[in-house]
Specification:
Helix 1 packs parallel to helix 11 and helix 5 crosses helix 7. It is built from twelve helices and twelve strands. It binds (2R)-2,3-dihydroxypropanoic acid (DGY). (2R)-2,3-dihydroxypropanoic acid binds next to loops.
Length: 330
C-alpha cells in the first residue's frame, strides 16, 4: 500500500477518499510538526499533502526516497522548494482557481471595513462613548468612485477588480503584463504610479524573491496619507516595520492584513497596538465550501500521484518531464 502523510487535520470526505487508496497518516496535533518531526514523519511516504506551515525543503524530500508528489493545500506554494522537488523528479501541486473568489471576497471586505470604519466604530459603541448625533463626527471614506489599486493581476486580483468595479470604483492595476480580459480596469506600468494614485491598495502577487519586501518605507511614502492598505497574499511581501511606521506616523490612514510574519503574530506585536491596523488570522480562503474544494483538489493530486499519473494541478510538470518519479501516464 502506498503511504500518504497529511500534515494537518482535514475534512472527513477527504480523509475517507485517501484511506480507500492508501495508508494514511494524518498529523492531528494542535500544532504542525517542526522540521525534525516532519522529517521523521516522512519515512516511507509516497505522497505528501502539505500546508503553509510546513517548510518542504530538500531534507524533507530526501527523508522519503519514494516521494512522488507534494500536494499543497493552497494556491501559494512558496513553502515548498520547487527547484529541489523538480531536481528529484517530484511533482509539486497546488489548488488554483478554487479559492480566488473567497480570497477576493475577504480582500474586498477589508477594503470596505477600513473605508467605512467597521473595524473601529463598533468599539466606540461598546465602550459607551457613542455621543449625540454629530454631522461632522465618525466620518469615514467612500468606496464608490475612489481608486482601488491592485498589485498583481492574477486570478485573485481579477476577482478583486470585479468587486471594485461593481462598487463603481476606478480600478487600476500593476502587473508584469497588461491584461485585456478584465474590462473596465486600467493598467499602470509602474508600482510607484499605482501607489500615488490609489485610495485603497490591495496586494495580490505571489511570494517570490522579487516580491519579498516589495512594500517597504519608500513605497508606503508614495501612498496618500488618506489611503488604506490591504494584504491578503503573503506576509513577507511587506516590510512590517515599515508598515508599522507608516501607520503610526500617519503616512497612511490604515491597513488590514490577513498575512503576517510570523504566523501566528504574537499578541504583543507592535502592529496590534495600533487602532488603524486590523489583523486577520490568515483566513482568506477559509469558508467551509472553499476549504472543502481545496481539500478535494489535494486528494485528486495525491491520488493521481500515487497511481503514477500526472496530478491534475501540477506546477512543475514541464520542468520535470523526463526525470519524473511518476510512471508518466498522461
Ligand atoms: C493560499 O492558498 O495560498 C492560502 O493563502 C492558503 O495558504
Amino acid at each position: 500500500m502506498p503511504k500518504i502523510l497529511v500534515t494537518r487535520r482535514t475534512f472527513d470526505q477527504a480523509a475517507a477518499e485517501l484511506r480507500a487508496a492508501a495508508d494514511v497518516v494524518i498529523w492531528e496535533d494542535a500544532d504542525s510538526p517542526d522540521q525534525a518531526g516532519l522529517i521523521e514523519a516522512m519515512r516511507d511516504v509516497d505522497a505528501l499533502y502539505a500546508h503553509i506551515t510546513n517548510q518542504v525543503d530538500a531534507a524533507v524530500m530526501d527523508a522519503a526516497p519514494n516521494l512522488k508528489v507534494i500536494a499543497e493545500f493552497g494556491v501559494g506554494y512558496d513553502n515548498i522548494d520547487e527547484a529541489a522537488a523538480t531536481e528529484r523528479g517530484i511533482a509539486v501541486c497546488n489548488t488554483p482557481g478554487v479559492l480566488s473568489e473567497s480570497t477576493a471576497d475577504l480582500a474586498f471586505a477589508l477594503v470596505m471595513a477600513l473605508g467605512r470604519r467597521v473595524n473601529d466604530l463598533p468599539g466606540i459603541v461598546k465602550n459607551g462613548e457613542w455621543g449625540d448625533f454629530d454631522p461632522v463626527g465618525y466620518l469615514a471614506t467612500d468606496i464608490h468612485h475612489k481608486t482601488l489599486g491592485i498589485v498583481g493581476m492574477g486570478r485573485i486580483g481579477a476577482e478583486v477588480a470585479k468587486r471594485g468595479l461593481g462598487f463603481d470604483m476606478e480600478v487600476i492595476y500593476h502587473n508584469r503584463n497588461p491584461r485585456n480580459d478584465v474590462p473596465g480596469t486600467i493598467y499602470v506600468d509602474s508600482l510607484e504610479e499605482l501607489l500615488q494614485r490609489s485610495d485603497y491598495v490591495s496586494l495580490h502577487n505571489p511570494l517570490t524573491p522579487e516580491t519579498t519586501g516589495l512594500m517597504s518605507t519608500e513605497q508606503f511614502k508614495l501612498m496618500k496619507p488618506t489611503a488604506y492598505f490591504v494584504n491578503t497574499t503573503r506576509g513577507p511581501v511587506v516590510d512590517q516595520e515599515a508598515l508599522y511606521e507608516a501607520l503610526k506616523s500617519g503616512g497612511i490612514a490604515g491597513a488590514a492584513i490577513d498575512v503576517t510574519v510570523p504566523e501566528p503574530l504574537p499578541a504583543n506585536h507592535p502592529l496590534l497596538t495600533l487602532d488603524n491596523c486590523l489583523v486577520m488570522p490568515h483566513v482568506a480562503s477559509a469558508t467551509g465550501d472553499t476549504r472543502l474544494k481545496m481539500a478535494m483538489m489535494c486528494v485528486e493530486n495525491v491520488l493521481a500521484g500515487i497511481k503514477g499519473d500526472w496530478p491534475p494541478y501540477c506546477v512543475n510538470r514541464d520542468a520535470i518531464e523526463g526525470r519524473s518519479r511518476l510512471e508518466g501516464k498522461a
